[in-house]
Amino acid sequence: MIKILWVVFLGISIFACSSHIRIHELSEKSKVDASISSSLKIDELIQPYKDSLDKEMNQVIGFSKDNFEIQRPSSSLMNWCADAIFANQTRNIKLAQPIFCLLNTGGLRSTIGKGTVSLGDIYKLMPFDNTIVWVELPISSIAEIEKYLSQSGGEPIANAKLENGKLLINGGNEKMTHFWVLTSDYLMNGGDKMSFFEQRTNAIMNGKLLRNAFIEEVKSQDTLIFNDELRIK
What is the C-alpha separation between 49 and 55, in angstroms, rounded? Predict the structure, then answer.
């Protein structure tokens, strides 16, 4: 009798276990099906926005006859970026004090290839929402800037050159006590260890994104101005 009950119990147990396994498998399959269905619905919702974004990013805003690349200490792309910010900000402004542009090589995240230049190309080049700032510095800070540029291996600069370890700013002279630097809010706040900005005596933030200034200059130039002069040597 005990043997019979044991066999019956064992049979019931096996049936119960196998049923449990089958139910579990169906449950997992249902979850996968539901997940796929949900993913497809999300894709359907996103697709119109993706198509619209792709259309905007593929918009042609200029043309390049050359490949603009990044290479320290100076290169065509580094020069173009610094020149673009300098031109964008000083085109209609005259200052009594010397001014130059200083950006950081690490902030430039892509190159610009020969051919059409799209809006997306500039977003790849400058994906960060860093803004342009005007920073006034005392003449005493130049030694630190010279040391930094020499040790970093080279950064994008415009309206100035570093020759034999000496920073030569266009318009600068022995009588100047202060000068202006066009840069980004990230660098002004000590990014990339540019601690010399702590010595600033004034700062003007206009809120314009570096990326937007680049876009404006691409459109203004139509065909990008190529310049690969060695500005840091």
Answer: 10
